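lol forgot to send this yesterday, sorry. C-alpha cells for the thing we talked abt
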C-alpha cells in the first residue's frame, strides 16, 4: 500500500518490481486483446507498482463511432465522462488487485478539450492511485517523484515522472519545459542531501523520447535490414550502443532547457524511459545516459508484434543496478489459436481486412439466401 504521499516501500526481501504500460491508447469500447494482455501481466509478473506512461486514452478520438470514422472532441462535459469510462478499463484491474499505480500524460491525453487537472481528478478517484503532484503549481500535475524506501525509512531508490506533452498558443507539442528541468534539479538536490550527499539512484519516465535518443542511431542504406526512414535519410540502431527493435523513426520532443545535460551532470538517473513510438522497443547508451524506449500496449492504434509491457526489477541491497525485460503479447498470452484469433481480431492493422472479410461473408451469405429463395419460388 502507498503511504506518506508518493512514498513506497521495498518488501522484506528487498526486491521491487515496476511495470510500465505505455500507450494503452483506447476508448470507451476497448480492444479486449489489450485488456487480456494486461491482466496476464499483472497476474504473472506481479508488480509492486504500475506506471501508465502516456497516451493513456485516445483522447482526441473519444467521440469517434465505427472503425473508419475519425473525429475530434468538442464537448468538455461529454469528453470528461468518456474519459472516465475509458480510463476505467485500464485502472480498475489494477485497483482490484491492490497494486499502487501512477501516470504521466502523453500527447493524446493533452489533445482534447479537458484540462490535465480535470483528468488528474479522474485518476484520483481510485484509492490505489498515488497522490502524484497535488501541491507544486510550478510544474504540471504529472511531474513528481516516487521515493522507494526500506521499511526503516532509508531512501534507496527514486522514480521521476516528468510531463513532456503540452501545447502553447502556437500549438507546439512534445517539449520539456524549463520549469520541469528546474524542478528536476531541485528535487535531485533535495534527495541527494537526504541521502548523505550521494545521488539517489533513479529511473526517469517521460512519454516523448528526448532528442538525444537519436544518438543511438547510425546512418543506413535504404531498405537495409533493421533500417527505418526518417525524412530523406535512413537509420538503424548502432549495435555498439543499443539492442532491440527500431520499427519506426524516433519521434523525439524538444529539450530547449537541457534536461539531458542536467541528467548527465547530476548523475542520479540510471535510465531515461519513454514510449510514444509504438514500434520501437530498445535499450541503449547515449553518451553515458541509458535510453530505453518501450513499445505500445494499444491494439486500437498501430503496434505490430512488439505490443507489450516492460518490467524493471530493483533491489534495496544494490540500488545502483536494475534489470529490465520486455514482455510482448505473445510472451504473456501464448501463441495458441485463441491468442492468435484474439490478436488478429483486435489489432488495428487488421481492421480493414477484418471488415472487408466480414462484408464479403455477409454478401456471400446474402447471395446464398437469395439463391435459395429463388429456387424455392421456382419450385
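and heres what i got for the seq, position by position
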Amino acid at each position: 500500500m502507498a503511504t506518506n504521499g508518493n512514498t513506497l516501500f521495498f518488501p522484506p526481501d528487498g526486491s521491487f518490481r515496476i511495470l510500465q504500460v505505455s500507450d494503452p491508447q483506447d476508448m470507451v469500447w476497448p480492444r479486449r486483446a489489450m485488456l487480456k494482455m494486461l491482466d496476464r501481466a499483472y497476474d504473472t509478473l506481479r508488480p509492486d507498482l504500475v506506471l501508465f506512461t502516456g497516451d493513456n486514452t485516445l483522447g482526441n478520438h473519444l467521440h469517434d463511432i465505427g472503425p473508419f470514422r475519425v473525429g475530434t472532441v468538442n464537448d468538455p462535459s461529454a469528453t470528461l465522462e468518456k474519459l472516465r469510462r475509458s480510463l476505467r478499463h485500464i485502472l480498475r484491474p489494477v485497483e482490484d488487485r491492490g497494486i499502487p499505480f501512477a501516470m504521466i500524460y502523453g500527447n493524446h491525453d493533452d489533445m482534447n478539450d479537458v484540462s490535465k487537472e480535470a483528468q488528474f481528478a479522474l485518476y484520483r478517484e481510485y484509492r490505489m492511485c498515488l497522490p502524484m503532484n497535488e501541491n507544486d503549481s510550478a510544474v504540471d500535475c504529472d511531474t513528481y517523484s516516487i521515493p522507494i524506501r526500506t521499511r526503516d525509512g532509508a531512501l534507496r531508490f527514486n522514480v521521476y515522472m516528468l510531463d513532456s506533452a503540452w501545447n502553447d498558443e502556437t500549438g507546439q507539442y512534445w517539449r520539456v519545459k524549463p520549469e520541469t528541468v528546474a524542478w528536476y534539479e531541485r528535487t535531485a538536490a533535495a534527495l541527494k542531501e537526504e541521502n548523505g550527499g550521494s545521488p539517489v539512484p533513479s529511473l526517469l519516465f517521460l512519454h516523448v523520447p528526448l532528442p538525444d535518443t537519436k544518438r543511438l542511431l547510425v546512418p543506413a542504406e535504404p531498405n537495409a535490414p533493421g533500417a527505418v526512414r526518417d525524412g530523406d535519410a535512413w537509420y538503424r540502431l548502432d549495435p555498439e550502443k543499443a539492442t532491440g527493435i527500431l520499427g519506426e523513426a524516433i519521434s523525439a520532443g524538444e529539450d530547449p532547457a537541457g534536461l539531458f545535460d542536467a541528467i548527465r551532470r547530476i548523475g542520479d538517473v540510471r535510465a531515461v524511459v519513454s514510449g510514444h513510438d509504438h514500434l520501437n522497443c530498445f535499450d541503449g547508451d547515449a553518451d553515458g545516459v541509458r535510453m530505453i524506449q518501450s513499445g505500445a500496449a494499444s491494439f486500437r492504434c498501430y503496434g505490430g508484434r512488439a505490443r507489450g509491457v516492460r518490467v524493471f526489477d530493483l533491489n534495496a541491497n544494490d540500488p545502483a543496478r536494475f534489470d529490465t525485460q520486455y514482455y510482448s503479447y505473445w510472451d504473456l498470452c501464448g501463441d495458441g489459436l485463441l491468442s492468435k484469433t484474439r490478436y488478429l481480431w483486435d489489432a488495428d492493422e487488421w481492421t480493414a481486412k477484418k471488415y472487408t472479410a466480414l462484408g464479403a461473408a455477409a454478401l456471400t451469405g446474402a447471395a446464398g439466401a437469395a439463391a435459395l429463395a429463388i429456387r424455392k419460388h421456382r419450385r
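The chain has one domain: 8-346. anyway ping me if u want another try
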